[in-house]
C-alpha cells in the first residue's frame, strides 16, 4: 500500500483528532474518523475527499500552530487530495499533470486557441471575417465540429470513468446495482447541497476568513449549476439536430438558448465570486497546494461562458469566425484538462459522500476494513 509524507501526515492528524474529538459536530470527516482506530492510505484518501476545506476545524483547534503538535487538518487533507488525484488518474503516467497544473493548462490554452484560430483562418480564407447566413456552421461545418469534439469527448469520458473505477474499488464499494438506493440518494443529496460547506452549524464555512460565511457555497452553486445548464444546452442542441432534424442557429426561446444563457450567466457569477474569495482567503487551511490548479480551472470556466455569450451576440456579424475560434479553443482546453485537473474533485467527492452514507447507515467502516496495515 502507498506510504508517503502526505498519507503519513493525514494519519498523524487523524490519530490526534481521534483522541480529542472536539470537532465531531463540524463535518463528515470526524464522524468517519470515529469509526476507526487506524488510518491507512486508502482510509486517508477517503477522508481527504470527504473534507470540504471549510476551515472550521483549523480555526477551532487548540493544537493548531504555534502549538507544538502543529495540527492543521484542512491543509493535510488538501495536500493529500492533490496527491491522490494523481494516484487515481488514468492512464497512470498522466497523473503527473496534477503538479504545476495551472502552468500547463495556461500554456495548453494558448497553444490550442492559437492553432485553432490559425488553422481555421487559413482554411476559410476570406470567409473567416465574413457574415454567414447559417451562423458559425458557415465557418466550420457541423460534421467537422461533431467529429473533433466527439473524439476528444470520448477519450475524456473514458479517462474519467476509469479513474473513478479505480477510486471506487479502493473505497471497497460494491457494484453499483448492489448499493442501497436510499444511501446513494443521501450521498448525491449531500454533494448537490454542498452540505459540508455549512460549517456544521448552518452558519457557513470559515472561508475566506475565520468569520463563518455562505459565500463559497453560493458561488459554487452558481458555478456547478451554470456548468450543468451549459451541458444541458449542448445536449439539447444535439438532440434537436440528430433527433428532430432541427440544426442551429436556434431562436431565443428554444431550449439550447434558454439553458445556454442562464448557464452562461451562472458560469460568470460563480467563478468571479470564487476568484474574489480566493484572493482574500487565509492561506493556512489550504496548505501548500497548487493554487494554480483552482485558478486555472476557474478562469477556463469563466472564459468559456464569456466567449460563449459573445458568440451568441456576434453570430450575425463578420466577427463570428474569430469569436468561434476563441470559444472552441477554450472549450477544447477545458475538455482536454478535465481528467487531469480540478474537475475530477466532483466525482471523488461524490463517491466519498456515498461511502459515508453507507458507513453511517451500517455504523461500521467500509474503506480500509480489509486492510489493517498502518501507513
Ligand atoms: C459532486 C459534485 C461536487 C462537489 C461535492 C463539489 C465540492 C467542492 C468543494 C467542497 C470545493 C472546495 C474545496 C476544494 O477546493 O476542493 C469545491 C471547489 C470547486 N469546485 Fe466543486 N464540487 C462538485 C462539482 C463541481 C463542478 C461540476 C464544478 C464545475 C464544473 C465545480 C467547480 C469547482 C471549482 C471551480 C472549485 C474551486 C473553488 C475555489 O477554488 O474556491 N465543482 N468543490
Ligand atoms: S482539529 Fe483540533 S480541536 Fe478539532 S478534533 Fe482535531 S485536535 Fe481536536
Ligand atoms: S476543514 Fe471543514 S470539512 Fe475539512 S475536516 Fe475540517 S471541519 Fe471538516
CA-based gyration radius = 22 Å
Which ions, cofactors or small ligands are bound in this entry? protoporphyrin IX containing FE, iron/sulfur cluster
Q: Figure out the total of helices.
A: 13
Assign an overall shape: elongated
Class from helix and strand fractions: mainly alpha
How many beta-strand segments?
0
Order of helices and strands: HHHHHHHHHHHHH
Strand count, sense and closure of the main sheet? none
- The termini sit apart by 8 Å
**Low confidence ranges:** 371-375
Helical residues, percent: 55-70%
The mean pLDDT is 94
Count up the domains. Answer: 2
Classify the beta-strand content into a percent band: under 5%
Keywords: Membrane, Transmembrane, Transmembrane helix
Protein name: Tricarballylate utilization protein B
InterPro entries: Citrate_utilization_prot_B (IPR012830), NarG-like_sf (IPR036197)
Transmembrane segments: 103-124, 144-168, 222-244, 256-277, 297-314, 320-340
Write the layout of secondary structure elements.
Blueprint (H helix, E strand, L loop, with lengths): L4 H16 L7 H6 L7 H10 L5 H5 L12 H15 L13 H24 L17 H29 L10 H12 L22 H29 L11 H26 L10 H23 L6 H18 L7 H18 L13
Helix pairs in contact: 1-3, 1-5, 3-5, 3-13, 6-11, 6-12, 8-13, 9-10, 10-11, 11-12
Bound molecules: protoporphyrin IX containing FE (HEM) and iron/sulfur cluster (2 copies).
InterPro entries: Citrate_utilization_prot_B (IPR012830), NarG-like_sf (IPR036197)
Organism: Thalassospira profundimaris
Protein name: Tricarballylate utilization protein B
Amino acid at each position: 500500500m502507498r506510504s508517503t509524507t502526505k498519507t503519513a501526515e493525514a494519519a498523524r492528524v487523524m490519530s490526534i483528532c481521534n483522541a480529542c474529538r472536539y470537532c465531531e459536530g463540524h463535518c463528515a470527516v470526524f464522524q468517519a474518523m470515529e469509526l476507526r482506530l487506524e488510518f491507512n492510505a486508502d482510509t486517508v484518501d477517503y477522508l481527504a475527499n470527504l473534507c470540504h476545506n471549510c476551515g472550521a476545524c483549523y480555526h477551532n483547534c487548540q493544537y493548531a500552530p504555534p502549538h507544538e503538535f502543529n495540527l492543521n487538518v484542512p491543509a493535510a487533507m488538501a495536500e493529500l487530495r492533490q496527491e491522490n488525484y494523481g494516484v487515481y488518474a488514468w492512464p497512470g503516467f498522466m497523473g503527473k499533470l496534477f503538479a504545476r497544473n495551472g502552468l500547463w493548462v495556461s500554456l495548453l490554452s494558448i497553444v490550442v486557441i492559437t492553432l485553432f484560430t490559425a488553422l481555421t483562418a487559413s482554411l476559410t480564407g476570406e470567409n473567416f471575417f465574413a457574415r454567414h447566413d447559417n451562423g458559425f456552421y458557415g465557418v466550420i461545418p457541423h460534421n467537422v465540429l461533431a467529429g473533433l469534439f466527439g473524439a476528444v469527448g470520448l477519450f475524456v469520458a473514458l479517462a474519467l470513468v476509469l479513474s473513478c473505477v479505480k477510486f471506487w474499488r479502493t473505497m471497497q464499494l460494491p457494484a453499483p446495482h448492489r448499493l442501497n438506493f436510499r444511501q446513494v440518494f443521501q450521498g448525491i443529496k449531500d454533494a448537490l447541497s454542498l452540505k459540508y460547506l455549512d460549517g456544521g452549524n448552518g452558519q457557513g464555512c470559515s472561508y475566506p476568513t475565520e468569520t463563518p460565511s455562505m459565500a463559497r457555497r453560493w458561488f459554487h452553486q452558481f458555478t456547478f449549476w451554470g456548468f450543468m445548464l451549459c451541458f444541458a444546452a449542448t445536449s439539447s442542441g444535439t438532440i434537436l439536430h440528430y433527433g428532430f432534424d432541427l440544426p442551429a442557429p436556434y431562436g431565443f426561446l428554444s431550449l439550447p438558448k434558454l439553458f445556454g444563457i442562464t448557464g452562461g450567466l451562472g458560469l460568470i457569477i460563480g467563478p468571479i465570486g470564487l476568484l474574489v474569495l480566493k484572493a482574500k482567503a487565509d492561506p493556512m487551511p489550504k496548505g501548500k497546494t497548487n493554487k494554480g490548479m483552482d485558478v486555472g480551472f476557474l478562469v477556463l470556466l469563466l472564459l468559456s461562458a464569456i466567449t460563449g455569450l459573445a458568440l451568441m451576440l456576434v453570430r450575425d456579424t463578420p466577427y463570428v469566425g474569430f469569436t468561434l475560434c476563441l470559444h472552441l479553443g477554450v472549450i477544447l482546453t477545458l475538455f482536454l484538462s478535465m481528467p487531469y485537473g480540478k474537475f475530477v474533485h466532483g466525482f471523488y467527492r461524490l463517491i466519498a459522500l456515498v461511502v459515508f452514507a453507507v458507513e453511517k447507515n451500517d455504523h461500521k467502516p467500509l474503506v480500509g476494513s480489509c486492510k489493517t496495515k498502518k501507513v
